Fold this protein.
Amino acid sequence: MNIHTYEKAWLAASLLLIVGFIVTITYGSVGLGIAMIDDSEDTIEPDELDEDERFAEPRVEQVGENEYEAYVVARTFFYNPDTVEVPANSEVTFYVTSGDVIHSYSVVGTNLNTMVIPGEVSTMTAEFDEPGEYGVICNEYCGGGHHDMEGQLHVVPEDEFDMTELSVEAPDEVELGDDATFEVTVENGQLDDLETTIDLEVGNETIEEAVTVAGQESETTTIDVDTADLGEGDHDWTVTVDDYDESGTLTVAEELEAGDDDE
Amino acid sequence: MSETYIDRFPAEAKVVRSAFYGSFLALAIGGLMGIIQTLHRTGYYRFIDSADYYTVLTAHGVFLVISFTIFFLVGIFTWAITTSLDREVEDIRFTWGWYALMAIGITLTGIAILAGFTDATDISSSVLFTFYAPLQAHPMFYLGLVLFVVGTWLAGADWFRSWWAWKQENPGERIPLPTFMVLTTMIMWYIATLGVATAILLFLLPWSLGLIDSVNPTLTRTLFWFFGHPVVYFWLMPAYMMWYIMLPKVSGGKLFSDPLARVVFILFLVLSVPTGIHHQYLDPGIAEGFKFIAMTNTMFLLLPSFLTAFTVVASMEHGARQRGGTGYFGWLKALPWRDPVFSGMALAGLMFAAAGFSGMINAGMNINYLVHNTFWVVGHFHLTVGTGVALTFMAVTYWFLPQVTGKALWSRSVGLAQVVTWFVGMTFMSNAMHRAGLLGIPRRTAEPLYEGFEYSAVVGSVGELQAQIALGGLLLSLSLLLFFANVIGTVLNGKSDSLPANEYAGTLSGPEDSPRVLDNLKLWTGIAIVLVIFAYTFPLLSIIERGGLFGPDVIEYVPISVDSLPLLVGAIELVFANTLAAIGDGGTALLEGVTR
Amino acid sequence: MSQATEKPDGTGTPEREISHDEYDPVGTAALIGLYFLILVALWIFMYFVEFLGNDPTVIGSLMVGIA
């Protein structure tokens, strides 16, 4: 077969280009460690996400000193959790699945982009060095509200990051002279111990209690307030632990209505 | 008076005309959808609900890349077979039969899509051109596509019949190049459509009829892309055919190399199908190793296009120098730029060379994270099918329409304005789409701006990109109006007796210079099938084993362990046999469903 | 039909005939060489600036299980 010299040269150059492209991609994989989304996670039943420990309660979990896992469920037309918050200087592995149709989980302005297919769990691991706020969008058509489907990814400075959860049980009404019992539960999602203070402000009173919550544990502290110090009437209260607070109103009455006891 | 196509083949000319008119009708509908989308997405003019945007988009995709492209190509393939074999079709009724099947099929699908605009019926199919489960379309959508594809299969059979008959009467002769191109394209198409036929007949159509409860989304998606990549070559190979056998003549020269043209088409036949997984680089459920194999196959698929670039440009240069052109670059001026048939194809080819680059990026496995499902991809295919193919088809219409009607082109200058406007419009629109994609702006969305964040543009701004997209879209719409004006004007024109003869380019290096083995279609088909088996058997079995044949609810997997080779073959045979059985079952069930 | 007139339709009579052996597509070589250089430059830009500059990127996890 007659191939002109110039075309032979171009054939060689073309093969060089093709091989060069393959080599570049391979360098990205082998040299830089870029991994593709793949089938490393087992399949899952999209109708039974409640039975999967990760997706029954989508959340961020700390699994190592600077290692976190984020479990996300995509549905039409939102993500759960809507916002994923992780600290800077961490390695995060996302586990994302769908409860209905094919979606994507795509962090805008980054290379974190994965298809999310019902029946499959997508995993992506990334290192977050710097703090930043990113939008997350679904870029795979999923129905009439597809363009409204968005979420957030917040990488917060390390000293601003916590995985603390606060919940308070307090009575609505107490008889004058009795104690009002506040049960403050502080949950620490991080691996390291959390040393902090519970501030209870009720009426004019301020009570502080130091508390240490062990890693991935929760502590419930009981604070009793003598209602004789408060007096009769409605008293607003606020419980504050670090950046979290809960508020309510305590009613101190002369005589309780029948059946109304502390809650 | 020279012999035009309609003089020599009046009956076939009627088929070609009908194919063209069907194609142009689809182009009009698809184009109308396009401008609605462009103005809606960029925010300049919204008169529909954003939720309905996806119905518009489904129509745009299906009408343009299924109907417009494929009706056009069956027209020119009919021309190519009859002209190069110098032979009428074996049975014109059979020819009309496949045409009718295609027309009925696409009409059903079209109705299923367009019915989504109204609440008068429950029918809708806003699933986009890719119709990924668990999104579900109306059964008519799937059935229409099946009929359309079967129509194209019969078209291929028609052309193979012509070739076999010609071979009996011309033993030992080399296959004429246009026929060779048609046959290799159709073999590739037969292999490619197995994927989508399986997906629809075994799974999606029965599922939409309620005959099965669920499907495995990863499986149907993978079967779609088995077809979804080679379909682009089904569009491209007819355009390449035009560049190889029409463009040299129009340039005033000859095709640089017939043998290399054959090699290119063989490479497409062999390599087009085992690449589909490059559309699924970011899918869970498919191992990285399979994605890497798809990547290397895809990268080598660049080769026939690289070779085409050289051969086609060398053929144009030959014409230019025969017309008196000189110098390293000066010869370009000697080309017949005033002829819209020439300049349309030349501009299409130029734009395709640029498109090739974005394709090289898309082929890259890990760089896909940057561009997957962003507007970049949309920019890419508006350059490739939207210009490389579509503009070529429009340009050659100015030569073919006179040939099949016997009437002169209504206006050469309007034709020239049309091709230039398309090129300019697409430059603005597609360039902006590529840049927008790099910012992370997604494809396939009615509203690309979100509430919770802003895109950060290093160069320019989102607003500037939106403006260019809208401007480009408007220019493209204008170009379409010019095209339709010329088509209608030509059809309404009087008969002409100064039309050129029906012929295609001669060659500098002809088929006598090419090794006989190139014409051994059985060999190349065999190799193509082997490569497909290597690329797809393990991934498909893995998907079925992991997620079940019909999805997670119904664990009915093919009872095969991946290590067992003879059982592997059995599995493939099982799938093929099921396909044939399902055609019968599906047809019966549909009839029952309709007559209830 | 006359082909000698100044019809700009590309199928007019060529000024000269160039045979297979006389023809060296130098113009094509020049254009294709240019194209090659553009491709290399754009690829390097796209991969090393646009892609690698768009981090964070997905990497292999330290804790990836060998299934």
Observations:
- The two ends of chain C are 75 Å apart (CA to CA).
- The helical segments of chain C are 26-51.
